[in-house]
């Protein structure tokens, strides 16, 4: 059974004040409209320590709802319920080492294709069909996750194709194709208001 993510991008800015004249956090965008995959378990583990933990230390593991969470977020959380609430600012996301190797290999094989100029160009991650299994001399099950059986740097060549076991990184776990829109919204808000005044507040159901 899958786990769904819920939440909002929130922002605090000086020109929106409460009755006491203080700036407050308000919900800017619902994650429902920003993510393609709301059951992205690899990202949940990597960022929030949900659906397992690691590899590596999650930068925002189950912090709970912020005490000054926006009214809209609090109301939605109260209505939907959920668990493992947390939050992370854009400043913290920018400080994450997205490309540093994590203390585990990537279980999926990386695929490269030779360009007309003779360079190897990334063509994907993970093997489709039976070709990699044939080239590597593996049964179909072992070919699905070769990083669990072979050390980082192991390569198999097949003409203009190259298959390689590579380190696991946070960028591989938190896929741009799923999170890119959310990051773009947060980045734009941070350019105007500052990275510490833009955050992602989430919980899971």
Tags for this entry?
2 domains; 205 residues; single chain; 8 strands; elongated; four-stranded antiparallel sheet; alpha+beta
Characterization of this structure:
A 4-stranded antiparallel beta sheet has the order 2-1-8-3, sandwiched between helices. It is an alpha+beta fold. The chain has 2 domains: 5-99 and 171-204, no CATH class; 110-167, no CATH class. The protein is built from 7 helices and 8 strands; from the N terminus they run E-E-H-H-E-H-E-E-H-H-E-E-H-H-E. It has helices at 41-48, 71-80, 90-95, 131-136, 140-144, 170-173, 176-193, and strands spanning 5-17, 23-30, 83-89, 110-114, 120-125, 155-158, 161-164, 198-204. The model has no long low-confidence stretch (mean pLDDT 92). The longest helix is centred in the C-terminal third of the chain and has 18 residues, at 176-193.
Distance between the termini: 11 Å
Provide the residue-averaged pLDDT. Answer: 92
Radius of gyration: 20 Å
Going across the biggest sheet, name each strand in turn: 2-1-8-3
Count of individual helical segments: 7
Annotation, overall tally of beta strands: 8
Q: Main beta sheet, described?
A: 4 strands, antiparallel
Order of helices and strands: EEHHEHEEHHEEHHE
Low-confidence stretches: none
- Provide the β-strand percentage band: 25-35%
Shape: elongated
Supply the number of structural domains.
2
Helical content stands at: 25-40%
Broad structural category: alpha+beta
